[in-house]
Amino acid sequence: MKTAILQDLSIYWAMIHVYFLFVMLFRSKYTARRTILLAAAGMGILMVLNGIGLAIFGFEAIGKIFLFTCSVPSFIFFYLLSVDKRFRFLLTFCLADTCSIWIMAVTNLLDHYLGGGQYVLMFISRLIAFPLIEYCVYRFLRKPYLELQDTVEKGWGVFAGMTMLYYVLLVVVVNYPTNIVSRPEDVFVCVLVLVLMVFNYGTIFTALYRQLLLYRKQQSERVLQEQKNSLEAQLENQQRIRRIKHDMKGYTATLSGLLAAGRTDEAAEYLKSVEAMMDTYIGQFCANPYINAVCSYYSQKFQELGVKMSYDIRVGEEKLPYMELCQILSNGLENACDALRELSKEDREASLQMKYNKDYLLMRIKNRCREDLHVEKGTIPGSEKGGIDHGFGLTTVKEASYRLGGDMLCYTDQGQFVLDVMVRVRNYIN
């Protein structure tokens, strides 16, 4: 009787830690505190009901229907809490459950063959194994896995399918038609499945990690390209300024001659022409030199594409977080260029607006887009490198806006792709 209690306690211990494993890996649409409270309440009710079932029907009977008494209800419950749907959620859920079933199967076999079936070894080994795997998950897996969920949009289906099949396979091998310790003829097959699962997850994590490394490499290349574009734009502006300085001697000589002859009206008209020419040379979109440099660079690209581009930039000489702002502008305008390149020249239109609203700087980049492109608010479209479209750079925009305490929103509206960015700049402009 006492040993049976150890078995029941070890099952409860496992159920609690399945919850911990999953919560570390999934992304909830609620705050951390609310998620913990809701999950604790939901899993608590589920554990009580399964505990009553264990007390009434016993471990053998509950083990056969555990998939339906615990796994399916918890899947539905956490699906409602999760911000991720479909394959990303399925992979995360099956990953946590399969790891837990794997530990339970291994400790069950160890207890039966090495512990005499007294459940003491089972209890002690589970007591150690679950916190140990949680530490490893938190220490090595959690951060890159969450980063992958946030950045990689495609490729989850195959991995989710593999994990789900192993989950079902483990449940069947361990519990059907009876518990594995009651079927010595199937133990070798069960051990092979358990060992194969380790290699299976090793393959999955290796592939996912390579995707993460590829994404980071693309991000790094994108940032370097932005810096290169910004430096080239600043260098070009400096060259234009030197050219203007050289030409100023001729301008001043002409003005001096007109004024000496008393022809003030002609001198004023000539001065306006010189001012307009300077603006053309410098590309004076605003007083901020960094924003001006980015806009000058992309203004030339838009001209080469024949884009009808309009600017409304209400930014002065005040100090701003130019690194992040240039990153946001470069990625937003680059995406606009990529999308407009696919359209016919008569349809190439875009606009850039920047203005303050209290403590925030608001930016909006709009451009015409393909008719078949549809983006809902709150989503980020995937990058199409075969035919480049909006996608990859928007993740960079989102990250940069978050670093500045702001947010990003993109969507399509009546044939226009709209990128809205809000960043907090109170500490800079006050």
Total beta strand runs: 5
Our count of helices gives 12
What fraction strand? 5-15%
Give start-end ranges of low-pLDDT stretches. 385-390
Structural domains: how many: 2
Order of helices and strands: HHHHHHHHHEHEEHEEH
Task: Profile the largest sheet.
Answer: 5 strands, mixed
Strand order in space, largest sheet: 1-2-3-5-4
General form: elongated
Mean pLDDT: 82
- Radius of gyration, whole Å: 31 Å
Helix content: 55-70%
How far apart, in Å, are the first and last alpha carbons? 72 Å
What structural class should be given to the helix and strand makeup?
A: alpha+beta
Brief description of this entry?
This protein is α+β, with helices and mostly antiparallel strands and 430 residues long. Helices cover 70% and strands 9% of the residues. It is built from 12 helices and 5 strands.
Offer a few descriptive terms.
12 helices; five-stranded mixed β-sheet; elongated; alpha+beta; 430 residues; 2 domains; Heat Shock Protein 90
